[in-house]
Specification:
Oligomer: single chain
Order of helices and strands: EEEEEEEEEEEE
Structural class: mainly beta
Radius of gyration: 30 Å
Distance between the termini: 79 Å
Largest sheet: 5 strands, mixed
Number of helices: 0
Number of strands: 12
Length: 180
């Protein structure tokens, strides 16, 4: 201990330690001028929760469903049966992770502007499992259409193919490079 009698103790909690209440006991064996003493403190051991997406369909078209599947495990790799909450574009969707695996489809609005969006996956704390949250970026694209016309043309001549590149509502897309 230091000059004031303070002593810090560090004890590594093993990755396979049981979850829940645990006692930590400290002993002083005494010396020629002091008696021995014993004291304990109780604390709870919690597991961190890991959520991962093995398949996230991005980019997607505005108005299509965002599909994903993933896993939920504790920090020792044990699959957990938990409810997964996906927050996207101000809405919340849930899926059950039976046997640690989940599938979820999140609808997107056809009116969503193209760009980068953030999807949050959260799991609230439950029992001796800590809450967790992860974020993934999702890219939303507008659909386009390329309409082509070409006249019938004899061999050994040049053909003029005319095309219109339009966005999802039929408006022409100016200044875009289109290849052959």
């Amino acid at each position: 201990s230091d000059g004031e009698g303070l002593r810090d103790y560090e004890y590594q909690i093993a990755s396979d330690w049981h979850l829940g209440p645990t006692d930590f006991e400290v002993r002083f064996n005494g010396d020629s001028y002091n008696t021995s003493s014993v004291n304990s403190v109780a604390y709870d051991v919690y597991a961190e929760v890991v959520v991962d997406l093995s398949n996230l369909s991005t980019p997607i078209l505005s108005g299509e469903g965002l599909t994903m599947n993933g896993t939920v495990e504790d920090d020792a790799g044990t699959p957990l049966d938990r409810t997964v909450r996906a927050g996207f574009d101000g809405r919340v969707f849930t899926a059950s992770a039976g046997d640690g695996k989940f599938d979820l489809t999140v609808p997107t609005e056809a009116s969503m502007e193209p760009g980068m969006y953030v999807m949050n996956i959260t799991l609230p704390a439950q029992g001796y499992y800590l809450a967790t949250e992860r974020e993934w970026n999702v890219t939303i694209l507008y659909d386009t259409a390329l309409n082509l016309t070409a006249p019938d043309t004899p061999r050994n001549t040049t053909i003029l193919v005319e095309g219109f590149l339009r966005n999802h509502v039929g408006t022409g897309l100016p200044d875009q490079e289109v290849g052959i």
